Amino acid sequence: MISLDVYFKKKFDYIPKIDLIKIDIEGAEFFAIQGMLNVIKHNPQICLVIEFNTRYLTNKLELINLLIKNNLYPCIYDIHNGYIQINPEELFSKDFEMNLIFRKMDF
User: What's the CA dihedral at 36, 41, 46, 49 to 10 degrees?
Assistant: First the structure.
């Protein structure tokens, strides 16, 4: 296993422009995010789509905090209104499985 930060450093020796990353790795999302912090930092328009399944995420609070610390906020996309931020505390109120969008938001 290799992180995205290490992969791009070895392959290109720089972080390329990345707009979208889809993550569905059954509970290991926290570790994947830790391995792409430079990718996130160097891509201000990046959007992460994360399969958020509370049955597999044992560290969802750590995951949400790591994403927010890196200026990535949970949101949904409404066809009429665009991106709408979700209150992160709502993600802990019940068990669910869905794709969540995390993106840098200007509020």
Answer: 40
d(CA 15, CA 44): 12
Instruction: Dump pLDDT digits (tens) for 16-35.
Output: 899 999 999 888 889 999 99
Inter-residue contact 83 to 103 (CB < 8 Å): yes
The Cα 89–Cα 61 span in angstroms is 9
Quick check: 87 pLDDT over 90? no
75 beta partners: 85, 101
Is the CA virtual torsion 17, 99, 52, 91 positive or negative? positive
CB of 69 closer than 8 Å to CB of 88: no
Token duo for residue 63: 């995951």
Q: What is the pLDDT of residue 106?
A: 64
CA distance 45 to 63: 20
pLDDT, residue 20, reads 95
